[in-house]
Amino acid sequence: MNNDRILINKLKSFENVNSYFLNIILALFGTILLAFSSKIQVPFWPVPMTMQTFVIFLIGMTYSVRLSFATVALYLFEGAVGLPVFAKGGGLTYFISQPSVGFLYGMLISVVLISYLADRGFSKTYLKATISLFLGSIITFLIGIVYLGAIIGFDKAIAGGLLPFIPSELFKIALAVALIPTLQKVIKK
């Protein structure tokens, strides 16, 4: 794992912590953040937003590729075994009955892409971070819309599963872009 890019490893107080133990703690912490972020709705226009994709952005930009994949895969596994970590519950029936589950699969691919790009310096500058997160959002929504469209039709999927969420997604990208490169500059000092 590329632990050199994980921001927490740059902090002095974590220098002597076993990296495997720290990765387990970070993965569990990431799944907790994802679960909370899926439950809390923030008033926004035109629809309320959750901060779930924002947490995906943070994980992708700050964790290694393997750790970000493992974290989101663990989150999906927790939901599959019945833990109520998703916006509307959990369990295997959730994966069968929820037409929006494609967005969760999209987040798994998205976090890997964001982390891969961050390994190549895309978390260090505001422009590159914006490109990375924008691409990650496209992946999440593309997979989510294809899955949703196969169930309810593509016109309805775009109208209900994409268009109302563009403003909130742009807000979350801007928030993450303002946060991550700045944090990296502060921590490196």
Explain what you see.
The protein is mainly α and 189 residues long. It has helices spanning 19-39, 52-62, 65-80, 92-97, 101-122, 126-152, 154-161, 166-188. α2 packs parallel to α8 (166-188) and α6 (126-152) packs across α7. The mean pLDDT is 89.
User: Which range best describes the helical content: under 10%, 10-25%, 25-40%, 40-55%, 55-70% or over 70%?
Assistant: over 70%
User: Which whole number gives the mean pLDDT?
Assistant: 89
Based on the structure given, which CATH architecture is correct?
Answer: Orthogonal Bundle
Number of helices: 8
Main sheet overview: none
C-alpha Rg (nearest Å): 16 Å
How would you describe this structure in keywords?
Arp2/3 complex 21 kDa subunit ARPC3; mainly alpha; 8 helices; 189 residues
Provide a short characterization of the protein structure.
The two termini are 24 Å apart.
What is the topology?
Elements: H1 19-39, H2 52-62, H3 65-80, H4 92-97, H5 101-122, H6 126-152, H7 154-161, H8 166-188
